[in-house]
Design brief:
The strands form two sheets. The protein has a three-stranded mixed beta sheet with strand order 2-5-4, covered by helices on one side. A two-stranded antiparallel sheet has the order 1-3. The chain is an alpha+beta fold and 146 residues long. It is elongated, with a radius of gyration of 43 Å. A hairpin with a 4-residue loop joins β4 and β5. The chain has a domain of 71 residues: Phage tail protein beta-alpha-beta fold, CATH 3.55.50.
């Protein structure tokens, strides 16, 4: 009787010890395919009758005579080079600047209230240089007369 009891005890303990190391394979969760809760929106393909392309008629508004409206700025530079003044003037209107190398290091002092064109004209008169403001290409050019 002792023998049967010991063997059953050993068998159960062996089975119990093996079950401690056994882990069940984890299966990934599988979800259902996404489905709509509402019907899809109807798709319309309208057929339109259109006229063939033609030249646009001429505008009745004369755009060449309209004045150019420019913002008024306060331009204030003291003992700065023309190159720095050009950067300030062009930057105030978000334009690009170009300065000829022959006049780039020349100093200038000016305090003025006006639009970009008036300031450029004043710099041109005071310093004896050409200052061109091109509103189409958005650039300010400082050139020498030579």
């Amino acid at each position: 009787m002792k023998f049967i009891f010991i063997t059953t005890f050993l068998i159960f303990s062996a089975c119990a010890s093996n079950s401690a190391f056994y882990t069940e394979d984890e299966k990934p969760e599988i979800y259902n395919v996404a489905t709509r809760q509402l019907a899809p929106e109807p798709i319309y393909h309208p057929v339109r009758w259109v006229r063939p392309p033609q030249m646009m008629p001429k505008r009745g508004i004369a755009t060449n005579r309209a004045p150019l409206i420019l913002p008024i700025i306060h331009f204030n530079v003291k003992d700065t080079t023309i190159e720095q003044a050009a950067l300030v003037l062009a930057g105030s209107a978000r334009y690009k600047s170009f300065v000829a190398s022959s006049i780039a290091e020349k100093t200038i002092s000016l305090e003025m209230l006006g639009n970009i064109q008036e300031i450029a004209d004043e710099i041109s008169i005071r310093e004896g240089i050409k200052v061109r403001v091109d509103h189409i290409s958005k650039s300010v050019r400082f050139l020498s007369y030579y």
